[in-house]
Design a protein that fits this description.
The structure is a single chain. By secondary structure, the protein is mainly α. The protein has one domain. The radius of gyration is 16 Å and the shape is flat.
């Protein structure tokens, strides 16, 4: 199913990969906190949320690269739309952190 050159497959992967990626990366951060390797008090209030969500969005690069090597242009196109929407929402959601008055 994932080996098809289809926009719908790309759209689905563009949504599913960051959602699972967010939970995976968040569980890694929780594990590092529990082991005492990473101290959450040393960072800003929204650092962890910003970083986790950005890394989850960037996980779309993995299927994008796989589709690029197979030259599945339609699947790549479907993957880009949800990624761009998530990036625009990420910038909008954290705009007060980045764009100080």
């Amino acid at each position: 199913m994932l080996n098809r050159n289809n926009v719908l497959i790309g759209l689905l992967l563009g949504i599913v990969v960051p959602v699972f990626g967010y939970f995976f990366i968040d569980s890694i951060f929780n594990l590092l906190d529990q082991l005492g390797i990473m101290d959450p008090d040393g960072f800003s209030f929204t650092w962890r949320e910003r970083t986790t969500s950005l890394l989850a969005i960037c996980m779309n690069l993995i299927p994008f690269q796989l589709y690029k090597t197979k030259r599945y242009d339609q699947s790549m196109r479907g993957l880009i739309f949800p990624t761009l929407i998530m990036v625009f929402y990420w910038v909008y959601y954290f705009q007060d952190v980045f764009f100080l008055d």
